[in-house]
Amino acid sequence: MDEDPRGPAAPGAPLRQLLVAVGEPLIDLLAAPAGLDVDVRDVVIAEPDEDAAANPGDLVLVIGARGRSALRQVRSAARDGAAAVAVKTQAERDAAVLRDAALDAGIALFGVWPEVRWEQLASLVRSVVDNARLTVEADAGEAPGDLFALAQTVAAMTGGSVSIEDTSSRVLAYSRSDRSDDEVDELRRLSILGRRGPEPYLAMLREWGVYERLRSGEEVVGVDERPDLGIRRRMAVGIHAGAQPLGTIWVQEGSRPLEERSQRALLGAARVAAVQLIRQRAEASAAPRLRENLLIGLLDGKVDAAGVAGNIGADASRPAVVVVFTLRGRAGVSNRPELELERAEMTGLISVHAAAYRRSALVTTLGSRVYVLLPDLPVHALPGVLGMTREIAAAAGQQLRAAVQAGVGSVVAGLAEVPHSRAEADRVLDAMGHDLDAPIATIADVRSRVVLSELLTVLGGNERFRDPRVDALFAHDAEHSGALARSVLAYLEHFGDVRVASAALHVHPNTLRHRIRRAGEITGLDLSDSAERLTAHLHLLLHRRQSR
Asked: In what order do the strands lie in the sheet with 362-366?
């Protein structure tokens, strides 16, 4: 790789950080042959008729060339040592060709969604890179490295014993000045040992309005000594991110009075702590969010399985399976917040059971469905997977106000085949939703329904296959408030048995016979012909599906 003409490498944003910050619905990761820790340091533009002239660490945006026409720029960027290249893809096969080329050249590849503006993407990526660089530079400055170091600094400045707590009064970090040895009161001792303040004292602070004042702004609040409770004098300040409370910093007075500069020290410490707490939250949420994004990419077949297997804690070469869950619905749920709450409860329940079954299980939500990827499975894993799925369904019935249905895909040989397991699980769940009341199913349970569902999907998506005679039957019913279409469907579903079909419709057999003759007269359908019966039945089922 050529030496970077810009000089020593400046800090950048790793690919994983770009995925978390930008990600869907702007870009998808299609390949990462060197992993997700590769740094992006700058963004450059490649025109369709020229090479990018990229430098090491660059993200090359291929503008004006889509799909296969961008192959030359992908290979050129890799030769220059660029970190990654971004291309708009037109079709799945184009994405596959580009992915293979990127893997062969050893460069990361992002697929850019068609509607994304290039200037918007460039601006976002540069912002992420700049923020990452500033964060690294700030970490190398004077700010304490962690909350415990900050607590020690405040203790030295105030001469007291310090604790940093979250909004639930859980102790996150603590320290004390050398001058305050053996001067810790009972409240502080219990707080540190129990990692939380004792409830009677917390209740008293709430009654005095201390927490209200701490939450309202940057005021440093004093709390007088209470010798009868064994509690020394204290000062505290709230930690905030704008108007949002993040926690508090407490300093307890020892044998000597707190330093005069204590208030100023607490105020400055609260502002430093706010930055550190926000960073901790971002780091804590980034990893799960990245894992979810990578799982979504695997499910959609957009991500190179081998390139991300290590990042999601899975062995790409071992068997895997996808299970998809959805709420079966509950009468009385009429508002979105309540429905979202139920889905969140369902996702939490599924996550716990899946993690108990397989440590490396991954869970994500797409629309109204919750997908579980179970990697690293033994060869004969299906019985165990079905047992786990039944446990989840049973637990949902006991703990949630709505039951769930689950479609179980086939166990596939490795992570590269996960999209096939996902597609099958979706088809199984689709078939269950039409006319099966079972809580779980596999393709073996619903194969005929899946085949029928696929046929109806093809039929519904091709107008040239539609039979206008069946449409005419529904038009006649609509004009005359009739039931000819419903009667023909019942007749076909009961194999031409007039007595059974008429009983299902709650009409006299002669009435049904008249309706079948009338339907033939209106449409010209010949139900004595097996091919006409089959196509008429499919069209009637399609109308029923579309009317639901």
From this structure: 362-366, 369-374, 321-327, 404-408, 440-441
